[in-house]
Amino acid sequence: MFETLPPQEPDKIIALMQQFRDDPREEKIDLGVGVYKNDDGITPVMRAVKAAEQRVWEEQTTKAYTGLIGDPSFMEAMTSLVLGDAVPHSSVAWAGTPGGTGAIRIGLEMIKMAGQDRRVFISDPTWPNHPSIIDYVGLERVSYRYFDNATRAVDFSGMMEDLQALKAGDVLLLHGCCHNPTGANLNPVEWQMVIDHIIATGAVPLVDIAYQGFGDGLEEDAAATRKLAASVPECLIAASCSKNFGVYRERTGALLAVAAEPFRVARVQETLAALNRMNYSFPPDHGARVVTTVLHDAALRADWTAELEEVRLSMLGLREQLVGELRRLSGSDRFAFLAQHRGMFSRLGTTPDLIDRLRVEHGIYIIGDSRMNVAGLNAETVPILAEAIVQVGV
Prior knowledge:
By secondary structure, the protein is of the alpha/beta class. Helix content is about 45%, strand content about 15%.
């Protein structure tokens, strides 16, 4: 049997990580893998997370199963964090999942179960796992224009032109904030136009919000998702705690489904429980319990919010520093877009051969499509990157 398995395409990010490890140069810089790093190059355990883990360790008396969809207190914490009071919490069905990836997978499987040959519209470009999971689940995938390589901004006119093909029952996958891989986001006016179009067509939005708190702030980053959820009859939201809580390896996420009618909420809830059962029986609990502990304790939440803000401002500071260095070295403002992007990533909008030159000549590792992890920089490596970018002619 095993010999008949088809070969799999290697994951480009994982392959780049291995190349970086194998590179003997001490001055090499990793801007590929999507994790936050502090000035020491470490992805730290956040203070509040550490304290919450200690509390869980001291107080937890059992490792028995929770429930098919996870701990209800985690649901309440995540619904409040992502949606605030935008919709009644009674209109939200949910499931705890193994990270945001698990939430996307469960959401797409439920879309497939709903039938009617639904199409899923995704931005070009998008997170590589989006098309992979869509294809594996067996849904039709349609791309819409999103990023303009010339301006390094959202190609909103192209996006809206492509979204004219949406029809009732189609699914529109949107990034809630900090678009991955480009860092270019819709502004509030553009978000409203997208929401109006969703309502007019009868499409169903699926929001992937993996970086809440990394862009303009916790509340600000959730604003578009909240407005969308309050405006449309139905929506799905895949939320991740990997980045904003730094619990990458704990695989902590949730799928939220908003519906107006109680009977639809109940049907979605039983469907999500069944999907969880078939996939992994019960979602991971440790990360979810830690996140819940942080969000339900005023002191821990305040400390977490403060540290998350430090992380956000650090990334913005690195962006400003990089733009300044590039302006000084190039004598132009053509890299000003880097300060306008938000979140961990920016897409340089350059060619794969120049990205290869950055790696070969300067030991700077960036994904071939020119997605760069700004959070992998520090004050000392920013000038090195800027000089390399100018030297290779990006």
